[in-house]
Amino acid sequence: MNRPTEVEPRDNHRLWIRYTDGSAGEVDLSHLAGCGVFVLWNEPGCFDAVSITPDGGVAWGEDIELCPDALYLQLTGKPVQDVMRGVRFSGRSR
After folding, report:
1. Taking CA 4 as the corner, what is the angle to CA 53 and CA 90, rounded to the nearest 5 degrees?
2. Cβ neighbour number for residue 58 with a 10 Å cutoff
3. Dihedral, CA atoms, 91, 27, 3, 49, nearest 10 degrees?
4. Please, which residues bridge with residue 17 across strands?
5. Which SS3 state, helix, strand or coil, does residue 50 take?
6. pLDDT tens per residue across span 21-33
7. Does the predicted model carry a pTM greater than 0.90?
8. Are 25 and 8 in contact (CB under 8 A)?
9. How far apart are CA 71 and CA 3, in angstroms?
10. Domains of the chain (ranges plus CATH)?
11. For 57-93, how does the pLDDT look when each residue is reduced to its tens digit (9 = 90+)?
12. Pairing, β 50-52 against β 24-28
């Protein structure tokens, strides 16, 4: 799986992100702002403090960390099957 190499906060809870394969662009996270733990993003400067963790997560301090795989899928629009080679999907819904 690709990992983030750069992140930059943007206005309105948008995040610019670049991955190891060169994919880059903005991801809109505004739907999370104000919900649960993401209420922290409403504090001045909190959203701007985004960083990449040593294991490749996208984090805001120790309180919020987003999965880099989920962000990659959102950024690229690729289906999980194309990104996670070797993962088997049954096609059955529960």
Report:
1. 105
2. 21
3. -140
4. 7, 25
5. strand
6. 999 999 999 999 9
7. no
8. no
9. 10
10. 4-81 (3.30.2020.10)
11. 999 999 999 999 999 999 999 888 777 766 666 665 5
12. unpaired
